[in-house]
Structures are given as C-alpha cells and as structure tokens.
C-alpha cells in the first residue's frame, strides 16, 4: 500500500493545476440550486474526457462509475455537491463570479473539482483496487428538499453492494493541509419556520383602533424562546433563531400583518418533532390571546448527520497515514446542516472537513459570505486524500 499511496500523491500533484483550472471555471460560472444545467454539462464533458460516462439523475445531477478488479464485490460512493448561493461576490480575483448575485460561497466548486480530480486519479489506478467507485455529482444541497433526498428517491443508494459513502466539505476554520473528522452525531437537522401574524392595521396615533401585529409578533418571538430554554433536554443541542421580520409599515402606519422567518435545529429526531408542535401551538396561542391570528408553516428540512463510527475511524486512520497524524483533527458538534445527512440515514457514511484557511494570504472568510475563498493548495489535498480513502476502503 505504500507504493500505492506514493502513486496517488504523485498523481494528485501532477493533476493539481488542472483541478485548480476546473475549480476556477466552476467558481466563475456558478448556478443556483436545481439550476445547475451548465455545471452538469461541464462535469459530464470533463468525465467524458477521462473516458468515463455519466448518467443524469434528479434532473441536473450525475452519476458515474469507475470499476476496479472484481467490480461486483463492493461499492464505495463518493459525493460532491454542485450548487451555488444567491450572494454577490466581492472578491477581486480573475475567477470572480460572472453571474450577478450568484456565488460559490460554500465551496461546492471545490467539492466538484476535487471529485473530478479523484475520478482522474482512480481511473488511472483502477487495476490496483477491487470493487466499484460510484461518483455522485449532486444538485441542490442548499435548498429544501435537498438534492440528496431526490437522488435517494431515484435509487442512487439501492445497489446492495454499497458499503458506505464518503463526502468532504471545505472548512475555513481549519488551515490548508489539515482535515477534520468526528464519529457519531456531527451536524444538526434543519427546519425552516415561516410565520404570518395577522391583526388589523391603522394609524400609529390611534393604537386603540387596531390589533397590532407588530406587538403580537414581538410577544411571539419572545414566547418561542421557551421552546428551547424550558422544554429541550439541556444535553440535547438545540437552536431556534429568527433572522427575518417584515412588518412593512411606517413611522405612523401599523400594518395588517407581519411575516417572520427562522430556523430550528437539533440532533434528536423525537425532540425535533415535539419542538415543531410546540412552536406551532405557542405562536398560534400567543396571537389569539392578543386578538390576532398566526399562520405557521414549518418546512421539514434535512435530518441530523451521523457519521458511522467504524467507517469514520478507518477514514481518520487512513488520513493520518496520508497526511500525517499532526494534520488530522477532531471536530466538535456543528449546528449547521447538510443534506449529506440524508445519505447517512440510509448507509454507513463519513462526512469530513477539508482545511482551506491561510491567514498569511488573508484567506479567512467564513462560508456563506461574499468574500469566501480558499487556498487552492487544498484541491491537491482534497483529491489525493479522497482517492486514498477510497482505495483503503475497497482494498487492493
């Protein structure tokens, strides 16, 4: 295996300029969730240039295969997501987004470019491993219902030979050259909350003539804080946050309604269901007690993400072999959400973090910000490491 590891590192280094070129193309041409038409064609064309055919799935998604020796013996699935975010990029770089208001601010360009790099590496050494590698290029990670759920419904994990799935995600809190792993529960579920609070608007100088939905909304938001503080088990991580309140009145106008948007996240599915019932009951009850009413719409989002302990332990050990023990870190629980969680509910999964930070170069911005970028040295690491983890799982 030492010779194979050396070979993978050589191929990763050799292909790094092309992987960077691919990433820059993707970064400059981002597409929103479930609109990844050009991205999908670009990925299919790139795979074809390697001699690999791909099949469409979930409209703009793709699936491709690399067969080693005894391809029916075992299948490992590798996943990358392709969609971008509705953010106007502020970076002044040669590969800046050319699509106004759309940006790869979450690193999905990195994930896709890395997986194409992995495909190139594994396709060149397929005689060195047994089994099959299934490549998933997935649409719509950033939006409910999540492209992962659609691909699962269309049968992407139905192959009985599948023994696990690997996915990686950029992490700007981790220095380039390093990666992070966590066994068991890792990321939270995420549901979207939409409230419409209705009253009776009027002149701000005559509050006795109105049913003030702004006041009602303020009471609802405060009352909903008890969902977590007085109902959640203190040992169960839970987050209830509201990020958008739209009253659309004026200094002297009380509107007829107020719209509120928020999110609920946790790591327990039973509590998740109960919490959504509490949110509905408290919001409606508070509004009614003040003479108004509240419509509650909670979109059921992604489940919590759980990394299989045994697969993750093997992957972590393999990462230490490839990168050195000092470059493999332990991760804390993360209350962000990822639709990779859908895969983790169906098969053994390992979702790990790829360091992209470089303070010396000023590359420190968080994901989902208009200045997010990466140290592109991470692409060689990401492609080489995932290729190594794959052959380790398949065996030689």
Please state how the strands of the largest beta sheet are arranged side by side: 1-2-4-3-5-16-6-15
What's the CATH superfamily of the largest domain, by name? Zn peptidases
- Can you count the helices? 10
Helix content: 25-40%
Order of helices and strands: HHEEEHEHEEEEEHHEEEHEEHEHEH
Measured between the Cα atoms of the first and last residue, the distance is: 8 Å
Oligomer: single chain
Q: DSSP strand (E) fraction? A: 25-35%
Question: In one word, what is the shape?
Answer: elongated
Largest sheet: 8 strands, mixed
User: What is the CATH third-level topology name of the largest domain?
Assistant: Aminopeptidase
The number of distinct β-strands equals: 16
CATH class of the largest domain: Alpha Beta
Poorly predicted residue ranges: none
Number of structural units classed as domains: 2
Please tell me the CATH architecture of the largest domain by its name: 3-Layer(aba) Sandwich
Class by SSE composition: alpha/beta
What report would you give on this structure?
The protein is α/β, with parallel strands linked by helices and 396 residues long. The protein has two domains: 2-185 and 304-394, Zn peptidases (Aminopeptidase, 3-Layer(aba) Sandwich), CATH 3.40.630; 190-302, Alpha-Beta Plaits (2-Layer Sandwich). Helix content is 35%, strand content 26%. The chain has an eight-stranded mixed sheet, with helices on both faces. Strands 10-12-8-13 form a four-stranded antiparallel sheet. It has a two-stranded antiparallel ribbon with strand order 7-14. Helix 3 (108-124) links the parallel strand 3 (75-81) and strand 4. Helix 1 runs antiparallel to helix 3 (108-124), helix 1 crosses helix 10 and helix 3 crosses helix 10 (377-394). The model has no long low-confidence stretch (mean pLDDT 97).
């Amino acid at each position: 295996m030492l010779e194979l590891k050396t070979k993978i590192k050589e191929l990763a280094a050799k292909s790094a300029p092309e992987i960077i070129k691919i990433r820059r193309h993707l970064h400059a041409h981002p597409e929103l969730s479930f609109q990844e038409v050009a991205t999908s064609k670009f990925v299919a064309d790139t795979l074809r240039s390697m001699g690999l055919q791909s099949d469409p799935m979930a409209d703009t998604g793709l699936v491709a295969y690399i067969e080693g020796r005894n391809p029916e013996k075992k299948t490992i699935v590798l996943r990358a997501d392709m969609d971008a975010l509705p953010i106007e990029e502020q970076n002044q770089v040669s590969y800046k987004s050319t699509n106004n208001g759309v940006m790869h601010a979450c690193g999905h360009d990195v994930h896709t470019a890395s997986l194409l790099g992995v495909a190139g590496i594994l396709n060149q050494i397929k005689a060195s491993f047994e089994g099959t590698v299934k490549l998933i290029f997935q649409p719509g990670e950033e939006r409910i219902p999540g492209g992962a759920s659609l691909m699962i419904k269309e049968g992407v994990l139905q192959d009985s030979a599948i023994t696990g799935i690997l996915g990686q995600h950029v992490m700007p809190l981790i220095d380039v050259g390093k990666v992070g792993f966590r066994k068991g529960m890792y990321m939270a579920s995420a549901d979207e909350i939409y409230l419409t609070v209705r009253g009776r608007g009027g002149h701000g100088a005559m509050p006795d003539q109105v049913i003030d939905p702004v006041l009602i909304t303020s009471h609802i938001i405060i009352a909903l804080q008890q969902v977590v503080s007085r109902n959640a088990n203190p040992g169960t991580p839970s987050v209830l946050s509201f990020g958008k309140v739209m009253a659309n009145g004026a200094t002297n106008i009380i509107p007829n309604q107020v719209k509120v948007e928020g999110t609920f996240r946790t790591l327990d599915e039973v509590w998740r269901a109960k919490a959504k019932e509490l949110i509905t009951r408290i919001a409606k009850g508070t509004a009614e007690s003040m003479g108004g009413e509240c419509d509650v719409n909670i979109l059921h989002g992604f489940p919590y993400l759980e990394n299989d302990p045994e697969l993750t332990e093997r992957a972590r050990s393999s990462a230490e072999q490839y990168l050195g023990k000092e470059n493999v870190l332990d991760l804390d629980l993360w209350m962000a959400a990822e639709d990779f969680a859908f895969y983790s509910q169906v098969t053994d999964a390992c979702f790990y973090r790829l360091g992209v930070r470089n303070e010396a170069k000023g590359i420190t911005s968080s994901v989902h910000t208009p200045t997010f970028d990466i140290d592109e040295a991470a692409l060689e690491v990401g492609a080489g490491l995932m290729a190594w983890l794959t052959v380790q799982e398949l065996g030689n």
